[in-house]
Design a protein that fits this description.
about 150 residues; elongated; Arc Repressor Mutant, subunit A
Length: about 150
Amino acid sequence: MLNETDRRILRTIQKDGRITNQELANRCGLSPSACFDRLRRLREQGYITGFSAHLDPEKLDRALLVFIEVLLDRTTGEVFSNFAEAVRGKPEIMECHMVAGGFDYLLKVRMKDMAAYRAFLADSLVGMPGVRETRTYAVLEEVKNATDLPI
């Protein structure tokens, strides 16, 4: 179970994953060794799953953000597994979520432009196992794109 000190550590490193242990300890009111031990425990217990850098999609030729609804032709365990495996092999697909409702999966895809998306759709997505239908939603403006969890 997390206490308030653990939550403070998580909030702090969520904002700045490159913070030094000394600075983290100072901000959280801990000694460096106690802070290091808590951080290690939070990693071991799976609260911290990794560290990464946030990159600018426009500067890396991935300015187009698209959400895609995917409807499968059958909803069996094998079809779900085969589709999920195919998705994991496509780096353009940033996120894939199985959802309840009028379709089976919601994908978040980053592409260079609409021509690249059209090629991806024709060459990759519609040929994935079980795909019967897709609906595409191109993002006109990102109003909020947060990665920090409310702790």
